[in-house]
Amino acid sequence: MIVQASAVLEYEFAGPTQVMLEIQAATSPDQIVTSEVLNLPDVPWRIDVAATGRRRLRGVVCGRVSFAYTATVDNRERRLLPPSGRLEAWSDLPEDVLPYLLPSRFCPSDAFIRFANRTFGDAGDGVAQVMAVMDWLARHVDYVPGSSMAQTDAEHTFTLRAGVCRDFTHLAISLCRALNIPARAVSAYALDLQPPDFHAVTEVFVGGAWWLVDPTRLAPVEGMVRIAEGRDAADIAFLTSDQPCTMISQAVTVMRQAET
Amino acid sequence: MIVQASAVLEYEFAGPTQVMLEIQAATSPDQIVTSEVLNLPDVPWRIDVAATGRRRLRGVVCGRVSFAYTATVDNRERRLLPPSGRLEAWSDLPEDVLPYLLPSRFCPSDAFIRFANRTFGDAGDGVAQVMAVMDWLARHVDYVPGSSMAQTDAEHTFTLRAGVCRDFTHLAISLCRALNIPARAVSAYALDLQPPDFHAVTEVFVGGAWWLVDPTRLAPVEGMVRIAEGRDAADIAFLTSDQPCTMISQAVTVMRQAET
Amino acid sequence: MIVQASAVLEYEFAGPTQVMLEIQAATSPDQIVTSEVLNLPDVPWRIDVAATGRRRLRGVVCGRVSFAYTATVDNRERRLLPPSGRLEAWSDLPEDVLPYLLPSRFCPSDAFIRFANRTFGDAGDGVAQVMAVMDWLARHVDYVPGSSMAQTDAEHTFTLRAGVCRDFTHLAISLCRALNIPARAVSAYALDLQPPDFHAVTEVFVGGAWWLVDPTRLAPVEGMVRIAEGRDAADIAFLTSDQPCTMISQAVTVMRQAET
Amino acid sequence: MIVQASAVLEYEFAGPTQVMLEIQAATSPDQIVTSEVLNLPDVPWRIDVAATGRRRLRGVVCGRVSFAYTATVDNRERRLLPPSGRLEAWSDLPEDVLPYLLPSRFCPSDAFIRFANRTFGDAGDGVAQVMAVMDWLARHVDYVPGSSMAQTDAEHTFTLRAGVCRDFTHLAISLCRALNIPARAVSAYALDLQPPDFHAVTEVFVGGAWWLVDPTRLAPVEGMVRIAEGRDAADIAFLTSDQPCTMISQAVTVMRQAET
Q1: For C144-161, what is each residue's pLDDT tens digit?
Q2: Ranges of chain B with pLDDT below 50
Q3: Element (H, E) at D129
């Protein structure tokens, strides 16, 4: 799929404020950025590119500020979670995958070991367990805007049985890690979201590779544009600032583009 | 059943310390205290008897102190949860029952509404819903000494799927309240506990009356000797003190007595 | 002071819904309701009056519904927290005051014992300790609308150092209970609130009586119209319902009336 | 300082169990491992060495198992936190330092921003702020064995004002991150601990480098032998296993060795 994604963020910063921005599409073999335009305030920006293709911008801004980004992304090489795939032994996991086995800010996976193994432990191989977790979420948790807040963790979502995309992702991650399946959070541009917004989805490591899944089932993985990955939402905010700031407006648009 | 219950508590108090003790069997028509001996330090004690038969002792103690209590209790009039009983309309509940519909320290029942109604809402009348909650606990939560601590609430137990008697009771109460069934915590002397200790069980209000149930299924309700009731464990501690103190030893014994 | 208080609540209930309403001014010697008008949907209402003067309405409503209340209240006998007053020994507390020494849903006072005693323990008598707690809150916690949510407890407010009236009250209550001062939450109509809304304040028991204090310092105690009291916000909601419902509009007005 | 550190761990594993071990001294210019002996069960072990010198062992074990390690470590090049050092601008931080600015499982630093900046924000440069945090911890938090459990986070320690080494470290990290100072958790062998055990300390990034500090002030930094670093205790366990296991015995010894 070829996707056009854009974001226009307007914020007000009372004084000079350090910010980190993660709004650019990641660059990777399964997600080729064919063109992009970045419109930032005219200050020095430091750009880091991670091995995963994640790009992070750092700068200092002040006053009324607009951050705009548009990209055309070719996802035609994206492969979807296959019908089967082994649960990897710890010893076979690449070292940079190990942190995604451990509990994190919003994903206290250590607390879910008993429930996860009892409920999903016999589902089959790694992919089958991931699918069982996703099915369980679809059946037992409701997508309810406003039901959670920025501090909500996966334990509370598990009790509440309601949440938004980041809550679904945190609970999916917690359950997978409790099953010994490495799992991480991914911010993304996604088709079909109503209202359009940044999306939070999940990546799981089975059968020797990372695979995107959307625990909310709201957006097709084929058209998903990955931005950043991390242990949970604490790591993948599109905007982090060292002072409080005020959002003036925010518009995200994602469209499928005809393939010629 | 006729039951003999006793407790001998030895504590060390570094200085003059205010204490509240709730170790006496409650007196009620379904639990007749036929004899009792209370052995307390020789200081003034204030005794309050609640409408429920709950008895609370208040005093000031110091140094190495022993509290001893023995009672013979006739529970032959105790009635067990009947096979059916209506879920009461709010308007029909006695006013003093209403607090037991609301969330409390360890029972954040407001967070369980979605789960409880989806899981138990169609189980039938009030008693059937209570039974469904108890069955669910028996199937999904393990009794694991050491798995929780004094600050553990029902949300954490729900995630963990493990706990001790107070955790079972807190989760049972939370689920019942989320179903509109008034529920409260009861401290008790109970037969068959290994090792013997104070027990925490649940009372539910259905069909116009309070009924004892033991969510752990460890002890028979017929032989249970109620001590105190409250919203949760915060209200029914056998010993509350306004200064830290050290437990030296604690022995609880409960025996069935032959009926002559 | 003579105060006129009114509330008009409009709600939408999808189906027959049980509700409890606590919107009427409590009746007590220091708060005389000289006239009141209650406009409720035309269904049976059960009214309970507690020993404290608290009035609770229970009924079943459906569809678009309006609850309206207006009262004129004479608070001229209200006495304010005196300059001194003893911290009561446990043995001297009336029995119905004891629950307000214990931790509750949003006030885990057991966790604050070390901090409270170290910070306020030497402030003087009971009133002096209460005043020290209120001064501390005014200096260390900011009133920030939107900084908390319905599930926020006093521990989180203590860390965050920000909250709204119910958070201030929960933290004040937790600190007082940790100091052995009975404390409870009170819902009220209050002058000077911007925007006007129901207010949550605190009552402390020192020198043998309950005294109203406003930890936010936003409203004068002389003009406060008490509605209900309880262990914390879980007990004093102006509207509790057994089904989700939608607020359409809500208007609270409180005015001082000239004394003739 | 030259230090000899050793650990002997005996565990019982009911069945084949995947484990990760982090018990070896890290190798780095300020911590030279001059000799070491590792005695592990005779199964294949995968060893990873991180850029920081951290060494992680992965294997599968079963039954009664002993892990033993002894090392002699030369810390004479260790430099201590200097009297001054700048708080780095975000743009000047190495990319691999950024994760240590963000909240993690036990360090919800986002909740401490208001308190930390108000209390330590004016303390001076980066080092001065770190010292102010450490002084505050020494004055306000008590070292109390048994006061916390494995799930305790920095918010609860902040309320409780008591904890053990991991709690001190989690609170120190949370406060530093809230001040924009990157901070991480370090497991270590430490002199002078009573009883001897693995220790948890803190590293802060100021003036362009990481510096070890011990928020408990129980052990000298000169003799500290770093094992592993991570966002918090979730990342630096000396033993992680995918099945429950039973500790049989555990002995840690750390001794200063005469320099010849």
Answers
A1: 998 998 889 999 999 999
A2: none
A3: helix D126-140
Residues from chain C that touch A156, judged by Cβ atoms under 8 A, are 151
Q: What is the pTM of this model?
A: 0.95
Average pLDDT, whole number, for chain A?
96
- CA terminus-to-terminus distance, chain B: 11
Residue of chain B minimizing CA distance to A110: B160
Q: Is C46 on the interface with D (CB under 8 A)?
A: no
Q: What is the mean pLDDT of residues D169-186?
A: 98
**What DSSP line would sit under A131-181, residue for residue?**
HHHHHHHHHH-EE-TTS--TT--HHHHHHHTEE-HHHHHHHHHHHHHHTT-
Q: What is the pLDDT of residue C57?
A: 98
Those chains having 3 or more beta-carbon pairs within 8 angstroms of chain D are A, B, C
Q: How far apart are CA D17 and CA D213, in angstroms?
A: 35
Tens digit of pLDDT for each residue in A149-208? 888 999 999 999 999 999 999 999 999 999 999 999 999 999 999 889 999 999 999 999
Q: Check pLDDT > 70 for residue D124.
A: yes
Mutate one of B144, B147, B151, B164 to test the D interface: name it (highest D CB count within 10 A): B151
pLDDT attached to residue C204: 98
Residue A87 contacts D where some CB pair is shorter than 8 Å: no
b/e string for D120-155 if b means 16 or more Cβ within 10 A?
beebeebbbbbbbbbebbeeebebeeebbeebbbbb
CA distance D115 to chain C (A): 6
Q: Which residue on chain B is closest to C181 by alpha carbon?
A: B242
Within 10 A of A39 (CB to CB), how many other CB atoms are there? 10
Query: D91 to chain A: which residues are within 8 Å by CB?
Result: 18, 44, 46, 58-60
CA distance B186 to B210: 11
The residues in B 63-82 lying below 8 A from C, measured between CB atoms, are none
Q: pLDDT at residue D19 above 90?
A: yes
Tell me how close the Cα of A70 comes to any Cα of chain C, in angstroms: 32
Cβ neighbours around A192 below 10 Å, total: 12
Please tell me if residue D150 touches chain B, with a CB cutoff of 8 Å.
no
What pLDDT does D232 receive?
A: 97
A-D contacts (CB, under 8 Å): 70
